[in-house]
Amino acid sequence: KQEVTQIPAALSVPEGENLVLNCSFTDSAIYNLQWFRQDPGKGLTSLLLIQSSQREQTSGRLNASLDKSSGRSTLYIAASQPGDSATYLCAVTVTNTGFQKLVFGTGTRLLVSP
Amino acid sequence: DVKVTQSSRYLVKRTGEKVFLECVQDMDHENMFWYRQDPGLGLRLIYFSYDVKMKEKGDIPEGYSVSREKKERFSLILESASTNQTSMYLCASRLLGSDEQFFGPGTRLTVL
Question: Does A98 contact B at CB distance below 8 Å?
Answer without folding.
Answer: no
